[in-house]
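Standup notes
- HV: blocked on the assembly model, inputs below
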Amino acid sequence: MTAYLVSILTEGAIFGIMALGLNVIWGWSGDFDLAYYGYIAVGAYMTLVLTIGPASATPPAQYILGLQLPYPLAVVIAVITAMAVSLVVGSIALRHLRGIYFSIVTLGAVYVMYVIAGQFVPLFNGYNGLSGLFDPMGDVLGLDYNSYQYFFLGLSLVMFVLVYILMARVSSSRFGLALRTLREDERAAAAFGRDIYRLKLKGYVLGAALGGFGGALFAAYLSAFNPSAWAPIEVIVLYAAVLVGGRGNIRGVTLGVLIMGVLVQESTRFLPQIPVLGDLNTHHPQVLLAMRGVVIGLVLVLFLRFRPQGLLPERRFVDRQAAPDITPRIITTNSEASP
Amino acid sequence: MLLTLGFGIVTASILALSAVAFTLEYGVTNVANVSHGEILTVGAYAAYLTHQRTGSAIIAAIAAALAGGVVALAMYSSLIGPFIRFGATPTVIFIATLGMSFVIQNTLVIFFGAANVAYTLDPGAPHQVGPFLFTPLDEEIVASAIAITVVLFLIISRTKFGKALRAVSQNRELARVSGINATRVAASTFFLAGLIAGYAGFVLAAFVGSFTPYFGFGFFLITLTAAVAGGLGRAVGTVAGAVIVGIILEVLPALPVPFVGGYISASYNLAFAFAILAIVILVRPRGLFTSARRTVFE
C-alpha cells in the first residue's frame, strides 16, 4: 500500500510538471498545442540515450549515443534538446497560424515525431523503445531499491515545487501578463508594440522545456520509454487535467492533476471490484483502459460545455480606471486607490 | 510504378469520399469535426456485423452508410449543434470533437476489443485496364466513388436542399435571416455526410482487409490533409485535393530515395501526409485551388 502511494505521488508530481508546461502554451498563450507530448517524449528519449550504455553492448538494440553520462547532466541536455525541437516546430507553426490551423499543424508535427521514433530504428530503437536506466544516482548516494523509491518521490516533489514557484513568478511577471494579452487580443497587443511572434515563441519554448523536464523525470521513473507511451490515452489526460483544473491558473492546474491524473486515473483501477462490473475484466484486458478513456473523454467534453473556465478559474485582471463600467462599483475611494 | 499508381487511384477514390464528407461537415458548421474518422470506423463495424449475418456485401454497404449517417447526425445534434448555439469558438469545438472521438474509440474497444478484425471481400482476379492492373473489387470501389461524388454534386448544385446547404456554408446568419432553418440544414448535411463516410469506412476496411477501433482516426489524418489541400469547406476542391494526396501517398514510397538509394518505407505514409499538410497550410492556407490571399490571423 505504501509502495502504491509512493508510486502514484511520484507520478502525480511528474505529471504536474508536464501540466504546468502545457499551461504556459495552452493556458496563458492560448494555443491548443497537440505537439506537446512530443517534447515530453524527446526529453525522455534523450535522457535514456545519454545515460545508458552504448548500443553495441546490447546487440539487437540500436540507438544513438549511449554515453553513460551522469543523470543530472543528461537531464539538462535532454531539456535543451526538447527546447530546440520546440523552437523548430514553434517557429513554423506560430508565425502565421492560430486556432485550429495551429492545432492541425502541431498534430502533424507530433505525428511526424511519432513515426520517426517508431520507424527509424537506429535513432531510438524503433517500436521496442529504450530501457536500462535503473535508479539514476542511486549508486552514487548508496541507496537500496526501497529507499530509492522514497528518494525519487522526494526529488520529484521538490522539482514540482520548484517549477510551481517559478511558474507563480512567471504568472505575475510582465512576460506572463504579456502572454495572456496575446491570448485575449493579439491585434491590441501588436498595436501596443509587442512583438507577438517572439513572445509566443518564448512561451512555447518555455512550456516545451517543462515538458522535456517532465519527460526526463518520467524516463527515470519508468526506467524505459517506447512509442506505446505516447498512446492517445496518456496524452489526453494531460489536456483534461489542465482544462478541468482551470486553464491559466497554476493552482487550478495542480488541482486538475490531482483530480484527473490521480483520482480518475487511479479510481478506474478499482472498477473490477464493483460486483456488477466484476466480470468485465475477463472479456479482454483493454476494457479497463478503455473505460478510463471514455471517462476522460466525457469529462473533457462536459467541462468544455458547462465549465470551460475550469474548477479554479484564472483571476481576471481588470483595470478599474480604464474600464469603470464593467467592474463592480466601489463607493469608497480608499479601496480604489489600493489595488 | 504503374501498379502503385493504380493502387493510388483506389486509395484516392476512398479518400475523396471521406474528405468530401468532412468538408461538407466543415462547410455548414465552420468546425473541423475531429471525430469524423469514427464515422468510418462505425461504418466498418456495421458492415462487418451485417455481412456476417446476411452474407451480402450490398446489404453490408447499405448498413455501413446508414450507421454512418446516424452516428454523424448524433454527433451534430448531441455535441456540435449545442456547442454552436452556446457560442463556443471553433477551437473549443475542435477540442470537444477530439474528446468525443476518444469516447467513441474507447466505447468500441469495450464492446469489440482492440484487436484487429479481419474483413476481406473476394477481390476477384486482377486484369489489365489500360495501363493499370485492377481487380473487380478495385473497379467497384472506384466506380462507386465516382457515382457517389456525381450524385452528391447534383444534390448540391440542383436541389433546393443543395441551395440551402450552400447558403448556410457561405453565411449561416444571412441564411437564417433569409428564412432557412440553418440547424435543420446542418443536421441533414451531417446525415448526408455520414452516409458517405460510413460507406467509405466499409470500402476502406474491405480494401485494406482489416480494421480496429482506431482505424478511422488514422485515416482521418489523411482525410484532413486532402480536405485542407483542396480548401476546407469547398467540395469540388476537396475531391481534387483527395485525388492528388491519395496518389502522392501511394506513389511516393515507391520512388527511389535520391542520393541514398533504396526506398522509403510505406509506414512513413502518415508522416508524409502531415508534411504535405503543414506545407499547404503554411503556403496556401485556403487550399491549392484558390486565388484568395492568406491572412495572418487565419
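- HV (later): unblocked. The CA atoms of residues 225 and 277 of chain B lie 5 Å apart. The two ends of chain B are 39 Å apart (CA to CA).
- Next: hand off to the docking folks.
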